Amino acid sequence: MTGHQGGTAHTQGHDHTDLDWNVLGPHLEQGAELSGPVHRQAAEWMRERTGRAVRRILDVGSGPGVVSCLLAQLFPEAEVVAVDGTEELLERTRDRAARRGLTDRVTTRYAELPGDFASVGEADLIWSSKTVHHLGDQRGAVRELARLVRPGGVLALAEGGLPLNCLPYNAGLGRPGLMARLEVVNREAFTAMREALPDSVETVDDWRAMLTEAGLDGATSRTFLLDLPAPLDTPPRRWLQAELGHRCGAAADRLAGDDLVALDRLIDPDDPAGIMRRSDVFVLSAQTVHSAVRTG
Ligand SMILES: C[S@@+](CC[C@H](N)C(=O)[O-])C[C@H]1O[C@@H](n2cnc3c(N)ncnc32)[C@H](O)[C@@H]1O
């Protein structure tokens, strides 16, 4: 789970804003692994929606390739092309595919979007998670993606949902409601990130309308819950600790001093009130997927 729509805050990097996807690689991979149940359910839904044999799948903005490999496993007849603009993440994808014996069906393609859309080829299923919101013209990007969908094929965009929650409202650290305030400042940072993108266009995030305007049919949204209740195992705790660290770093200048102190305590591995040691920490969020088909 990454990106401001329920995930990693923005630090720095290749989309000319302030993100460093390469550095975020291991964190992106762990987050996507934690979201495995969400991705599996979404993929099952995609399988129901496709009106044709799925031979070629594009995972656009594939990051470390967790979903690319999952799709290859769930669609055994298909080749999957992981498309991304960060070479180190594509390398991570190739390593992951090799570990799973999927090298012959999961390949990678470097693409700087939106410029390289036309070069990635057509597909029966196009999955793009938390990536279109990193492109200045979201509506234009959805149009480009829709053009690549073969007749009977599906375009699925994982965008939006519910913010990550991980603590009770009163967490016994500073003022109650810390996570809600962190979400507000992260949203402000997200808006600033979007405004700074090349060719940024202010768009209403009506993803179903964008899919329909792009010439696809039956635009529908479904939301999938990620619910890891307390007590959490160590891997999700580690991921959460890193996630809060990234979010705090991205929003430090927007947070009140007492909230920064509380967040510092939360990410301190030795603090009994911190994420790594407290008993009440959980992961609760939801990912919305918007999909539509090409009937023509
Ligand atoms: C938030 S991550 C999402 C990764 C993965 N889809 C997931 O849901 O975990 C966004 C991904 O989009 C890629 N990306 C962002 N801007 C891009 C651009 N302009 N061209 C190509 N890839 C881009 C990044 O390298 C990163 O892997």
Automatic annotation (TrEMBL):
CDD domains reported in the protein's UniProt record: AdoMet_MTases
Gene Ontology biological process: methylation
All copies of domain Methyltransferase type, residue ranges: 58-156
GO MF entry, a single one: methyltransferase activity
Entry-linked Gene3D superfamilies: Vaccinia Virus protein VP39
InterPro entries noted in UniProt: Methyltransf_11 (IPR013216), SAM-dependent_MTases_sf (IPR029063)
Disordered: annotated span: 1-21
Pfam families in the record: Methyltransf_11 (PF08241)
Cited PANTHER family: METHYLTRANSFERASE
Name of the protein in question: Class I SAM-dependent methyltransferase
Biological source species: Streptomyces coffeae
